[in-house]
Task: structure prediction
Amino acid sequence: MTPKEKNNFTGITAKARWILPLTLWVVLSCFSYPFLLKVEERSFFEFDMAWFIEFLDKPSGLLSWLSLFFIQFFHIPWLGALIWILLLTAAAELTRIMFRIPQSCSALAYIPAAILVTYNMSLGYMIYYVNLPGFFLLPTLGYLWVLLTVAVFRKVSNTATVIILSAVWGIAGYYIAGFYGLIGVLTAAVDTAVSQRSRTFRLSALISVIAVTLLSPILFVETTAYYLPSGWTVGLPDYMIRVSLTRIQAPVIAAMLLLVSAPLIQLPKLSFVNKTPSYVQGILLIAIVSLSYTWWYKDPNYMAELKMIHAADNLEWEEAINTFRDISEKSEKDKSWQPTRIMVVLKDLALIKTGQEGDQAFAFDDGCKQQNTICGVSMSMQIGWIMGLHYGIPGLCQRWCYEENMLFGWSNVSYRYNIMTAMVFGNRELTEKYLNKLDHTLFYRKWSREQRALLNDRELLARTAPYDQILPLLCYDDIVTSDLAGLEMFLNRHFNGPSPMESTPLYDRIALLFAMKSKNSTMFWTRFFLYLESNNPKKIDRYYQEAAYLYANNGQKDLLDAFPIDDRVKDTYKSFMQYASKYGKLSLEDARNCFPKHLRETFFYYYYYVNELILF
Amino acid sequence: MRKITIPILLMLVACTPRIPATFDSVDSVPVIFPDYTDVTIPGNIAPTNFLIEEGADSYITVLESKSAQAVIKGDKVKIPTRKWRKLTAAPEISIRVYGRNNKVWTAYQPFKLTVSDEIDPYVSYRIIPVAVESYEKLSIRQRNLTNYDEKVIFANTMVETNEEGTCINCHHYRNGETDNMMFHVRHFKGGTVLVLDGKLNKVNTKTDSTISAGSYPSWHPTHDYIAFASDRIHQSVHALSHDKLEVLDDNSDIILYDIRNNIVSPIENDTSQFECFPDWASDGKSLFYVSATYQAPSGIPRRDAVFLDRFKFHYNLYSKPFDPDTHTWGASRLLYDAVASDSSVTWPKASPDGRWLLCCISSHGVFPLDQIESELIIFDLKDFSYRYADELNSPFAESFHCWSSNGKWLMFSTRREDGVHTRLYFSHIDENGHFSKPFALPQRDPEFNREFLNAFNIGEFMKEPVKITPWQFASFISSTEATPSRYDSKREK
Result:
């Protein structure tokens, strides 16, 4: 290789070393931030010694704890992304250095890091099923632990020390890093086996490492209460789903197998490596990046859902509406596009919270696009607590918080909803219990202090968001119920049930919207007059006028003069009916093609053409 | 040597907190958590560590009895076990707390711990995260009451958590002895795990003629029988109530399981009666149980009907004579007419001395744990007089109680601390049926109950620890199919 070629190699890899992480950081911070926020919201970290000690109970607990420590910074997505990328870069660079990967093919060192990125970024809806604290950074930290183990073992030169080290480091490593601890000693053993040291030394290392690998999990299961096979895999991402785990864990296992086999490859000894032309390195890098990105989960509806859920969690209702509006507009050309039901119900909730439902509820495309995932996630698992709390059904909110906690552990978001529910119930002791937890966090202690200020002042609570719009909804008699058949259907039943004896204006507004959504004219008239009576509006909102005009024309003609209807509503109705008589019955997709936008944004269109929705 | 000894002695003296010589006094006892002020404790219980919550800068606590004294510094009063054993050797321990604010010491009024009868050395309970449908992280554990040691008896996590997952419940012991014990396993390879004279067995007590496998067991004190409820349980979420859940049966009977012959026979199976919660009298010659009358309307699914009619479920208390030698049942006798008082009595538990019967009482329904209003009511079996055990009751649910083997102590579940997380409390009963102020299960860290986000459930006293290891249970459960029980309707009711 000429010095010029050498410089080329160095130039490419040196630039790539910075360009790749930098690009990844920009992409993660600008485009994948809702996902990073979701990772943070579904985790929890507190600065508390007792909480820390709990993690020491189980192998890989310490690594989980460390992972959760870093994940808390995803609260500021660019910062979290930066930390993650620094860890990945360290993993790649240390791989290059430790396994002496020549400059001419240093891109190979990035393969395991790319796999780890791919694994996380391809999760999509699976994030709702991960059952491992700190799952997001655990494989990356585990990878670094393996490298550290190899480095430590390389320092040892005599047989007695390697046996002692295998036992001590092996068992300690297993308790610190679980599965990655075992991979660490295995990799170290392979590394030792291919080294130039004595046969006795290599044999001792191999035997002691194998003994540690086999014995550590057995010791572990004897002292704890976990399923025996999980002794060897503890620390690998686990999922509460009924599909093959191996398939989902495969990328992490692949990254670790690469590490175990790395010492065997002995790249510097391969003659063709040094003869590799520089463009191959470039191609390799492009291939790694492209392949990785291909596997990322990029469904725009999923990202929109995440953004809307995050907005709802933070009471940023306008943001939720704008997200829905943005994706609707971007998808205008794609006539097959439909929102998911989660997007629709969150949009409706946001419209209610901002008082816009009367003028905006039917101004967006409706739909029921299925989630693009191998394992569907119920609407209740995703937004059950949001709907329960904000629609004034605190029992439902509490129920889904607890289900989540039981299955996946406590998270920032479940603490917050538990606190808000306990506030609504007026349960001081319970609220304090959960607030104390958030007091020990970095990013939620301020929110906790704000909530604590409301704890002793019920009047202030009633004037403060979100409670100002929740307490007025608690005007119905308690019911026992279940939303297992579907959250949306449950809400429909709830608001289309008997009217509360002493309903509130807000309750009547919501009940009217649900009556319109259910297309039940009798229910509509009941709710409509209750709405008029309790809200006494100066001007009836557009969609209420449209529904009243439609139902009056369809049977209750005597009501046509009972309240003012705008000429614009009458004209739109006329125009709509002309189109309807021209096209007759149409599927949702065909109707979207045939009707102009201004007619699709009417209650008339919803009533006649939005008919194929599968509610969840 | 002397050079070393003197500094060490000086250090020890410096480390021992000094009782303040001058101080102001206040008229109240200090606020502590858990509340152990003026409680009666068993002589063999673990130290009742507590947290002082008076907002002072520092504290000194002095524990004194005729036999010993301990001085402890700090807001977390963790009493050394050796010192505690000496303190509890006397019949009374006096505790005085001093708090210091702005360099001024304040002495709170002393409170006392009365040391009384010994308690069974072990309890077992379920530890369960608060949830409605999920059960993956449930375990049954045993706790040594004389210290803080806790061990798993069996946990759902010890077998697969997916399709091959299990759910365990209803752990129970014959007279508190663990060589004869049982618990249920639901779902994968489900059945009733029976330990008989130390040997593992698994049976399926669900037959074609019974509603379900046996639940809510009561082991006969002298013979090889277990009385069970056989019921179909449903639960539903409250939308707007402090009660999280409504749990109801849509059908229930009570059955007798003949252990040695693996035969199930009916005790009460009237279709219009929902019988539940059997409990043997201490002599085994009668069975207490509760029953509600309900006729489901036609045209509605039974499950929906019971929830719609949930306020109609009023469970009366009955007893039914039984001759264990001849397996002969007498006619049931109404002991408490809950219907007449618009209430519902559940979970009868007779004291081992045969004198008392403690039940839960609420406005309706069968599952006191999830009813905020559930309280404990005590019946004197001499004359069937009764009274609400107000000294035990709180604004939150009291439920699932259990008597110690000497009949002197009661353990019960309560949500008094925060309305959601069930905790175990203990109380002493005197010869007149009066309970002492209840106290929380002592923990090494006094803040444990505040921090711990799981619930304790169904405490059972044990005279000894379970000897079978969790892995013996796990291996047995995973590898063994349940032996079906035989149903014999002809056995006399």
Chain A touches chain B at residues 50, 221-222, 224-228, 240-242, 393-396, 398-399, 402-403, 405-407, 410, 425, 427, 429-430, 433, 436, 474, 476-484, 494 (CB under 8 Å). The radius of gyration of chain A is 30 Å. The CA atoms of residues 402 and 414 of chain A lie 8 Å apart.
